[in-house]
Amino acid sequence: MADIKGDAGMENNDTVTNLTNEPVWVVAQVISGKEEEVRKNCADMLKGGVLEDVFVPRQVRLKKYKDGWRRERRPLYPGYVFMVTSDPQSLEKALIKVPGRHRLLKADDIILTVSEEEKEFLQRLAGPGNIVDISTGYKEGDTIKILSGPMVGLEGHIVHVDRHKRLVTINVSLFGRTVKTTLGLELTYKQP
């Protein structure tokens, strides 16, 4: 699963000093399994003020049960909630009012923001609904060819394939670090 730490490198990221007052993405670390609860509390208590948007990127996976495979949604990054704000410092102060355990990711007391390149990549992967759907593909020799889904063109990011669980692990850049992210992948057939 993804491992995002607050001590990540910041060479390609904006800091808390937002001179343009353009909206930036910040990430709050929360208790794993409480992402939706924190998202809802933030939306109810802070939206329309310092918080412009709050979301939990999700992914669709196939999970095998006795009666067959089922599609399930789960957080793309368990334990993290993404927030959009033009004022990260004020957002951090406002979060004190929101119930639950959460903290904005920082490095040396500077609130980390998602870089434009990282933001564009995540938006491309998850689409407008912030949901990464299952991709389909096939194996050709030692490589995977993606036929459809959000991973089209991202074959070079694949680091591991688990055909039995129908999962693929890719490398994604977040906060200037490489983060391993596991996504759903349906391998339909083998090419000779």
Keywords:
192 residues, alpha+beta, Alpha-Beta Plaits, five-stranded mixed sheet, 3 helices, 16% helix
List the helices and strands and how they pair.
Blueprint: E1 24-30, H1 35-46, E2 53-55, E3 58-65, E4 68-75, E5 80-85, H2 88-94, E6 102-104, E7 106-107, E8 110-111, H3 116-126, E9 131-132, E10 135-140, E11 143-148, E12 158-162, E13 167-174, E14 177-191
Parallel strand pairs: 3-9, 10-14
Antiparallel strand pairs: 1-5, 1-6, 2-5, 3-4, 7-8, 10-11, 12-13, 13-14
- At the fourth CATH level, what is the homologous superfamily? NusG, N-terminal domain
End-to-end CA span: 32 Å
- Radius of gyration, in Å, reads 18 Å
Shape: elongated
Helix/sheet category: alpha+beta
Indicate the CATH class. Alpha Beta
In what range is the share of β-strand residues? Answer: 35-45%
Helix content: 10-25%
So how many helices?
Answer: 3
